[in-house]
Write a structure and sequence with these properties.
about 325 residues, TIM Barrel
Length: about 325
């Protein structure tokens, strides 16, 4: 079974209907972070460093890429998150290894709080100059950045450096109900300075399900949806009961509660994996499932999609993986 099907009901990135053979790697090399944001998920934050040795990380990534290519994929997207991934001591070395060992089409994306300085980011941009595509999601955390004015100026300055390299740079920010107005003003500031900004809802575990914070007002939800709306772009599609809905960002689907795929076939683990700081390979960030293997050892990726057994899909990366309720062979 592959992506070239006619689907009756489906969800995921738009390329589910295209012929691309894309494999996504979502990697958190360490949960250590120099920030302690009140709305951060406890499972994604640590005050202690827990990353694997550099030689294990580099060899593991090379082995994983080889297995992905052997499965017939010709496009690899590597996404780093954390904690704060850029604080892993060997991070630039790992990036250089990824860029120097290009076996197929490779792209890179990093979710970062941008706490590294301009000199570090210039080294990073030089190391990644041969990649076909590079994008940065710079997460803005008003309660942790210190001087708001200085932090705003830093984000704009580094954003301009990325644009000078013709690389994608956007600012992402969670708008907790308790800080909504202040952070919304930050979003307006960056937009006025021609920075791309994505707003997100705060999510919490409620009744063992990842769900939106219950304190949002309807006006807040509508503001977040309207902010991310781009009428001419659909990055996420959802078809069920004969009705097709398109969203310019997966956060809109989450905010509207379109996150229940229990029992559907999911390509998490088949066309994407999540790697934890200890090297464990999982189907998704919030998937309730056994691990696939470990990056430090031998492992086998799922050749076909597996049924979802999670009550609520609460991570935007997990949501993007193609999901199928019913399908027809072609």
């Amino acid at each position: 079974m592959d992506l070239r099907k006619i689907y009756d009901e489906y969800a995921g990135e738009v390329n589910i209907l295209q012929k691309s053979k894309l494999f996504c790697i979502y990697w958190s090399p360490d949960f250590f972070c120099n920030y302690s944001c009140s709305y951060c998920w406890p499972a994604s934050h640590s005050s202690k460093r827990t990353h694997l040795p550099s030689e294990v990380l580099i060899a593991g990534l090379s082995k994983l890429k080889t297995k992905i290519i052997e499965m017939g994929y010709d496009d690899i997207r590597l996404v780093f998150a954390g904690g704060e991934p850029t604080l892993v001591p060997c991070f630039l070395e790992l990036i250089e290894s990824y860029c120097n060992e290009i076996k197929t089409r490779q792209t890179l994306s990093i979710n970062t709080n941008l706490s590294q300085g301009k000199k570090w980011w210039n080294k990073f941009l030089e190391a990644t100059k041969d990649l076909e595509s590079l994008s940065i999601n710079a997460s803005w955390h008003r309660e942790s950045v210190g001087d708001i004015k200085i932090a705003r100026e830093k984000f704009i300055e580094i954003g301009k450096i990325f644009k000078s390299y013709k690389r994608d740079f956007r600012i992402t920010m969670v708008l907790p109900p308790s800080q909504f107005d202040d952070i919304y003003s930050d979003a307006l500031f960056f937009r006025k300075n021609k920075m791309m900004v994505l707003t997100r809802v705060e999510r919490k575990f409620i009744d063992k399900k990842m769900d939106m914070h219950p304190d949002y007002t309807q006006d807040m939800i509508e503001s977040i949806i309207d902010w991310n709306q781009h009428p001419d772009i659909e990055l996420f599609v959802h078809k069920e009961n004969g009705i097709l809905a398109g969203y310019s960002d997966v956060e809109q689907a989450i905010a509207l509660g379109k996150t229940d795929y229990n029992g559907w076939l999911c390509y998490g683990g088949a066309s994407s994996v999540v790697i934890q700081p200890n090297g464990d390979i999982l189907r998704g960030h919030t998937c309730i499932d056994k691990r696939i293997g470990n990056i430090a050892n031998d492992f086998t990726l799922n050749p076909e999609p597996q049924k979802c057994i999670t009550k609520r899909c609460g991570c935007s990366a997990d949501m993007n993986r193609p999901k199928i309720k019913s399908y027809l062979e072609v």
